[in-house]
Design the sequence.
């Protein structure tokens, strides 16, 4: 697939046909210059600043934007669910001859849910934990389809089956807690489509789900759309999801639609510098060993004064006029518009940046093209820093005993980035926390520089050595900073604990240097965390770890909660620090695509067991274990042609027959470990031999 | 890319089809020459740009990475918002002022009164109604009720404040440790059950009989058993914050228990603690009344509870003995009830809009 040329690829999906079909119709819903103002602590703040968007029947439109861009607020207007301190202060939304901005709460009852329905991000909070799944769907069926009793129940079974839930009669009687995350999201979708809405709005429907489940849910929504002839709006920050589902894409920034076009136009011929920046910053497209073209700074929040183009301060291609006047929408093709002064005839002629051109050429995921790439297994002098031997972590006891980590073996060498990849609940975070002694180890051992640190009680000096040499970066930048402490205290917490400063002046000096090192302004030290964006908060968290001058950092999904434009910043920062300070990382992630860019070696973990461990490129090129293959097939690819035609592999743990032939952790070729029994290992060896032959 | 015949209504979102006209004429009066003046976030000299000719406007601007990092500053402070919201609750604010005046008055009252507490009892003068001589009348021993009433008010308020503050402090400290240190959870839970399952009145009676009935002893006894409710409340709240990632971060940094409790968890509980304190004060006064009624408080130094229990015995005959202390107790109770509720509303971040 990777050998395909761009013209060949274009044949995979016929976007021109979509464009013809879609644009030959009247818009189904049309928002014009919508403005929304929130009153917050006595101030009036504009969240939506004149957004215009048309929605055509039968299409899938994706609205892409970062948190705070107003994408959720904007689409909530389509179902009349604006928060109580917000007000529509301008514009109109035409739908079926009505202006949705003027409807009363009574009139909304006929539209919300029946004509326009919504699926939200978190399936747990949108279901009632005290009612059965069946009851919740049936309620919607009875309310909107007018069916009663047995007929409603039959219809409910049919809907459950339609959303891919097996054995609907048994499932009907179950409660939400008996369903997994992906199944719950299916139920939420079932409730939304039960009343056959004309428009379905999906607000980040797969963000809380694992990659393999995510692909299934997207497939489900696509199938339902075809069956029921729905029009779908996706709200997402994930360009992989956009590439997978969208016919048309609208990019939102600071409460405005800044670029809109067919998916192929926005991905391969974008014209707003923000869209350029978003696409170039994707780690999937990065070149290993090089810096990602990150977007500096942080998306504007409501308190920013906005003059001219809101993106100007972060825009390397900004014109003087961008700071002064808001650009109008310029038409590029009949379906493609961009709100950028660069399209003005008076503006300098500018080519799209190289990274966009590269996107067109790049037909697969990023390549390890760095000739100086570090090949850990070729380095005879590598020294182990962290070793885990037969590591086991269990929670609870007796009947409630749960094995989170099951006989895991790995070695992390000095100076490398070791990635641990797995789905939620696979035990990857538990391993990370076991190293920094937050989770106690049940059996096996962990060594730091050859010293055993996994005992329940360890000597005080060893504990101090461990704390000073191993630090952790956390996943959720919102939860990992103490909201009631100033940045100054948060960063110097470690210094206080071991009194690592001469006097207060010295301490403040160190805090200022740490802030600068992570690219923040030193004046931030006197502020509280709530003033900062997710990316800035994450960098404060990194500064807090750095001030201890550690050798080793456990980075627990450090970018998965961040906005797309911010991810690249944090990845670059981690890579820079690795070079300047000689750090070693354990990078925990659920997304293989990110890991390929940043890591030297990758371990894949499934249900508490590491099933495969190899050098990054080796793992991507020659995956052996079926679970690794399934994960790789689900990796989101920011290329609409490839993403829409990709073949998903589904991993079924039932294929392993370990009843007689017991599995072992084996180094199948130097530095490529895999978990399997003799028969499977023979198969894997056969695979490798064939790959070798093909290469010669 | 798609080339379609232009349809007039297919591009409603296009604001202008031709090169849009921007009014670039500038009133020379409005040009700000000072580059440091009124510089909005992240924008270099916007006013000097105003004066640029059109050609220059369409040239690339200088890029400052530092400017991109600047953020809108909401200037929001939690406690400032709490205070502002509290001030909006007029009844609570008025009652607080009334209460403070009342407390200050207890010091002035005995000073302006005609008799003081040390007057000898005069059996000819008992149960006199309020008059110019005895402003609040006299009690069953012929003593001036004005001085006794205000003395009792001061004593009760002081007792209530000291006892409530002590038991809330003790409760918070125990609750924090109870909630955060897993190893001690079992111990404190059993201790709590043990103390909580025996009626407090029985302890109090025992202590009064064994140690003595002085106000200090009884205050001490109240603190000893009064921390239970606060501690349990705090413990349950600590559970909410205990496993937040910022606490894990503190553990990674080797932060000690005391610092974690008081820097990471305590600040989140302050609103609850103040609420508990506000409600504990009328509670203590009510409790003191119960104890007086049972005859467990010392009788030589009056407190409001004692006055009320004495007055109850002779109520139909000498009504003034009940009305005065009852009115004062009502003011105190209502004040703290209103203040407590207003404060807990003000602390809720959802109301900070």
Sequence:
């Amino acid at each position: 697939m990777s050998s395909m040329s761009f013209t060949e690829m274009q044949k995979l999906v016929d976007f021109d046909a979509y464009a013809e079909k879609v644009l030959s119709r009247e818009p189904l819903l049309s928002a014009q210059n919508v403005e929304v103002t929130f009153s917050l602590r006595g101030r009036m703040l504009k969240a939506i600043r004149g957004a215009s968007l048309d929605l055509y029947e039968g299409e899938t439109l994706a609205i892409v934007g970062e948190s705070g861009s107003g994408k959720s607020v904007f689409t909530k207007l389509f179902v009349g669910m604006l928060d109580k301190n917000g007000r529509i202060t301008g514009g109109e939304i035409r739908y079926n001859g009505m202006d949705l901005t003027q409807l009363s709460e009574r009139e909304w009852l006929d539209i919300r849910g029946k004509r326009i329905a919504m699926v939200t991000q978190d399936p747990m909070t949108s279901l009632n934990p005290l009612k059965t799944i069946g009851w919740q769907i049936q309620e919607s069926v009875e309310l909107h389809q007018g069916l009663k009793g047995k007929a409603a129940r039959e219809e409910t079974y049919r809907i459950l089956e339609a959303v891919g839930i097996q054995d609907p009669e048994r499932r009907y009687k179950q409660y939400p807690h008996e369903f997994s995350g992906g199944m719950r999201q299916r139920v939420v979708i079932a409730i939304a489509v039960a009343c056959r809405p004309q428009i379905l709005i999906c607000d980040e429907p797969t963000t809380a789900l694992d990659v393999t489940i995510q692909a299934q849910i997207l497939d489900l929504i696509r199938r339902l759309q075809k069956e029921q002839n729905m029009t779908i709006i996706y709200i997402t920050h994930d360009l992989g999801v956009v590439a997978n589902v969208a016919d048309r894409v609208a990019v939102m920034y600071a409460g405005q639609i800044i670029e809109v076009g067919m998916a192929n136009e926005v991905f391969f011929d974008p014209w707003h510098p923000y869209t350029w920046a978003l696409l170039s910053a994707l780690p999937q497209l990065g070149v290993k060993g090089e810096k990602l073209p990150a977007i500096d700074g942080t998306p504007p929040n409501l308190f920013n004064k906005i003059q001219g183009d809101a993106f100007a301060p972060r825009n390397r291609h900004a014109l003087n006029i961008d700071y002064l006047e808001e650009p109008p929408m310029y038409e590029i093709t009949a379906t493609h518009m961009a709100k950028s002064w660069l399209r003005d005839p008076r503006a300098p002629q500018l080519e799209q940046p190289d990274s966009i051109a590269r996107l067109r050429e790049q037909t697969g995921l990023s390549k390890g093209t760095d000739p100086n790439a570090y090949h850990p297994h070729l380095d005879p002098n590598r020294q182990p820093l962290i070793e885990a031997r037969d590591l086991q972590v269990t929670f609870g006891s007796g009947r409630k005993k749960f094995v989170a980590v099951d006989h895991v073996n790995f070695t992390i060498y000095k100076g490398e980035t070791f990635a641990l990849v797995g789905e939620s609940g696979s035990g990857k975070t538990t391993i990370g926390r076991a190293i920094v002694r937050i989770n106690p180890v049940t059996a096996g051992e962990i060594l730091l520089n050859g010293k055993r640190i996994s005992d329940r009680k360890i000597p005080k000096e060893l504990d101090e050595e461990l704390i000073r040499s191993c630090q952790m970066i956390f996943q959720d930048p919102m939860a990992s900073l103490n909201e009631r402490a100033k940045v100054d205290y948060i960063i110097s917490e470690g210094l206080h604990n071991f009194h690592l400063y001469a006097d207060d002046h010295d301490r403040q000096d160190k805090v200022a240097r740490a802030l600068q090192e992570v690219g923040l302004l030193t004046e931030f030290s006197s502020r509280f965390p709530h003033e900062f964006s997710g990316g800035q908060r994450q960098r404060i968290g990194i500064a807090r770890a750095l001030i201890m001058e550690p050798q080793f950092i456990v980075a627990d999904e450090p970018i998965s909660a961040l906005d797309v434009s911010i991810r690249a910043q944090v990845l670059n920062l981690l890579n820079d620090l690795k070079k300047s300070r000689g750090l070693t990382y354990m990078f925990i992630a659920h997304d293989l695509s990110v890991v390929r860019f940043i890591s030297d070696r990758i371990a894949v973990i499934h249900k508490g067991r590491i099933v495969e461990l190899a050098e990054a490129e080796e793992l991507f090129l020659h995956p052996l274990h079926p679970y690794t293959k399934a994960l790789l097939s689900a990796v989101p690819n920011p290329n609409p042609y490839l993403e829409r035609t990709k073949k998903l592999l589904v991993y079924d743990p039932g294929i392993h027959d370990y009843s007689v032939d017991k599995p072992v952790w084996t180094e199948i070729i130097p530095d490529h470990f895999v978990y399997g029994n003799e028969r499977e290992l023979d198969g894997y060896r056969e695979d490798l031999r064939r790959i070798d032959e093909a290469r010669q | 890319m798609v080339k379609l015949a232009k349809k007039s209504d297919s591009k409603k979102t296009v604001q202008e089809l031709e090169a849009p006209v921007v009014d670039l004429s500038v009133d020379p009066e409005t040009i700000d020459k000072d580059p440091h003046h009124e510089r909005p976030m992240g924008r270099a000299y916007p006013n000097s740009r105003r004066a640029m000719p059109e050609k220059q406007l369409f040239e690339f601007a200088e890029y400052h990475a530092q400017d991109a990092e600047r953020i809108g500053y909401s200037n929001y402070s939690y406690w400032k918002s709490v205070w502002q919201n509290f001030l909006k609750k007029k009844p609570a604010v008025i009652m607080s002022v009334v209460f403070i005046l009342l407390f200050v008055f207890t010091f002035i009252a005995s000073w302006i009164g005609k008799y003081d507490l040390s007057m000898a009892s005069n059996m000819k003068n008992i149960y006199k109604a309020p008059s110019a001589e005895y402003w609040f009348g006299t009690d069953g021993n012929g003593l001036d009720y004005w001085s006794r009433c205000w003395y009792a008010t001061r004593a009760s308020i002081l007792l209530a404040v000291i006892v409530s503050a002590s038991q809330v402090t003790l409760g918070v400290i125990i609750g924090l440790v109870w909630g955060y240190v897993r190893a001690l959870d079992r111990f404190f839970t059993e201790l709590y059950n043990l103390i909580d399952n025996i009626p407090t009145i029985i302890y109090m009676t025992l202590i009064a009989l064994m140690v003595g009935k002085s106000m200090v002893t009884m205050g001490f006894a109240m603190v000893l058993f009064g921390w239970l409710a606060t501690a349990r409340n705090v413990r349950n709240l600590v559970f909410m914050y205990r496993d937040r990632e910022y606490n894990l971060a503190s553990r990674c940094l080797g932060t000690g228990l005391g610092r974690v409790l008081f820097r990471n968890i305590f600040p989140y509980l302050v609103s609850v603690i103040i609420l508990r304190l506000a409600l504990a004060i009328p509670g203590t006064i009510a409790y003191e009344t119960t104890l007086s009624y049972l005859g467990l408080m010392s009788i030589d130094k009056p407190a409001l509870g004692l006055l009320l229990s004495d007055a109850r015995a002779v109520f139909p005959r000498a009504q003034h003995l009940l009305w005065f202390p009852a009115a004062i107790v009502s003011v105190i109770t209502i004040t703290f009830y209103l203040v407590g509720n207003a404060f807990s509303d003000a602390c809720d971040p959802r109301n900070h809009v």
In short: Residues 257-293 of chain B form the longest helix (37 residues).
